[in-house]
């Protein structure tokens, strides 16, 4: 996986996962100045599948862009059709932009700047032709909660689609080895633990990145149903250790095969480890 330089209380009893979910959400809600990501309610549409939600719309400046470094631009339109300019912070940012290739073989997590006219802009280097999707995690101040909007765009040219990578429990990036423990169960909360090592030695001095020791984005192959999870605990809470384990309480919206992208920071560099994991029966 490509290195990104710009840029995710342990509950031991899975049978009580709904209590862990409540606790994790309470922890996120308690972060000063931070909104939090709530799991979809039963029967709700999973995050990222809609370009419009709760009256808010993701409007890309262009649906067809060139390969290479581009000035990626978009707006969030509110219920009255005007660009939204006031947001509550979600882990130190007013907006998180996630861009992926639709077959989930490429991933970018970046943070655009908001201009006075309500346009978000960021330099984004996309290497090759293909079909892509952009996701925006936002908490419009007038709405009072976090939502995720998604929109497709494309890069023209010779396109050679690739299969979703095979399931694996270990990922390597820049000499770091990250292992994945835990299972995904459709519609039920489970704990996932990501363990970071380098040269066989556990990393115990992970650096905070966006107010957490890791950020985990989970996407379902096929429809790109989206989940963004923050770890249980936070830096400076007196309980959470800076590695080697980073634990997430995770709920996925249904059965399928998922790609998991973990952002972690060490040595002043943000890196991304990617995994493929199918759901299992409870």
UniProtKB/TrEMBL annotation:
Top-rank taxon of the source lineage equals Bacteria
Bias (Basic and acidic residues): 8-26
Residue ranges of the region described as Disordered = 1-48
This one is known as Secreted protein
């Amino acid at each position: 996986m490509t290195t990104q330089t710009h840029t995710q209380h342990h509950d031991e009893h899975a049978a009580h996962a709904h209590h862990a979910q409540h606790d994790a959400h309470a922890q996120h809600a308690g972060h000063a100045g931070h909104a939090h990501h709530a799991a979809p309610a039963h029967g709700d549409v999973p995050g990222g599948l809609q370009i419009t939600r709760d009256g808010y719309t993701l409007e890309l400046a262009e649906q067809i862009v060139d390969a290479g470094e581009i000035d990626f631009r978009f707006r969030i339109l509110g219920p009255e059709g005007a660009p939204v300019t006031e947001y509550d912070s979600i882990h130190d940012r007013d907006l998180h932009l996630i861009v992926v290739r639709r077959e989930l073989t490429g991933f970018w997590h970046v943070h655009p700047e908001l201009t006075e006219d309500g346009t978000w802009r960021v330099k984004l280097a996309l290497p090759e032709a293909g079909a892509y999707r952009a996701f925006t995690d936002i908490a419009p101040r007038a709405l009072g909660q976090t939502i995720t909007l998604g929109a497709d765009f494309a890069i023209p040219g010779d396109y050679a689609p690739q299969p979703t990578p095979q399931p694996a429990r270990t990922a390597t990036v820049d000499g770091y080895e990250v292992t994945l423990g835990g299972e995904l169960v459709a519609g039920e909360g489970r704990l996932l633990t990501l363990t970071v090592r380098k040269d066989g030695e556990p990393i115990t001095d992970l650096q905070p990145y966006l107010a957490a020791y890791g950020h985990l984005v989970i996407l379902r192959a096929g429809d790109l149903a989206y989940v963004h999870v923050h770890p249980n605990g936070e830096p400076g809470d007196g309980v959470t250790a800076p590695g080697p384990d980073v634990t997430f309480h995770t709920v996925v919206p249904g059965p399928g095969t998922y790609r998991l992208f973990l952002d972690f920071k060490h040595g002043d560099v943000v890196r991304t480890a990617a995994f493929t994991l199918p759901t299992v029966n409870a």
